[in-house]
């Protein structure tokens, strides 16, 4: 599903963010990406949805080479990749329903299909009863669930979650993890960057550890491996 072949990323100030990474993530896997601050995790994650482009090497998502894809094809690619951020990135003037439906409206989906898909994903994240609420009427955990619903409404092959529990209290973080596990069990590949030691050590998944832009550990059912 995801493959990086000898991937390097150098920024103009001669900072080497990623140094020769080679990894494969199979369809349906759930993978944690861990490592100290400044290790290159954010760059690693951003390259998967073409927010950043590698300086050298190839990144393939289901055989599509992100290193060579034309700019005009990126929106089509991103329909297959859902992204969830730490700070939610919801549109404050839109309701829960409208925030989620927006992703379908921009591709001119049929209105009846939009309604069905939006209500289906709001059911998955347990927010059908909040469809008409505005983001500032929701808790942080509810806002993150809206962000997850928006990310999966196109039924993406891959869900990339960049610190999805970082701004949440512990109980709410576990609720978000339950939802991400459910999405994964429905067949979506999940790649999650996190600093949450408790989650990684309790919900055992594959762990890819990055330090100084290199993969230093890749374990099938790994631990977080760093002291907080």
Write a structural description.
The protein is an alpha/beta fold and 228 residues long. Helix content is 32%, strand content 25%. The protein folds into two domains: 1-80 and 157-228, P-loop containing nucleotide triphosphate hydrolases (Rossmann fold, 3-Layer(aba) Sandwich); 88-155, no CATH class. A hairpin with a 2-residue loop joins strand 4 (56-61) and strand 5 (64-65). Helix 3 packs across helix 4 and helix 5 (140-152) runs parallel beside helix 6 (170-185). It is globular, with a radius of gyration of 17 Å. It starts with a strand and ends in a 9-residue tail after the last strand. The model has no long low-confidence stretch (mean pLDDT 92).
CATH architecture of the largest domain: 3-Layer(aba) Sandwich
SSE ordering: EEEHEEHEHHHEHEHEE
Which CATH class of the largest domain?
Alpha Beta
- The end-to-end distance, rounded to whole angstroms, is 32 Å
Task: Note the beta-strand portion.
Answer: 25-35%
The number of distinct structural domains comes to 2
Estimate the mean pLDDT confidence: 92
| Strands in their spatial order, largest beta sheet | 6-7-8-3-9-10
Question: Which percent range fits the helix content?
Answer: 25-40%
Largest sheet: 6 strands, mixed
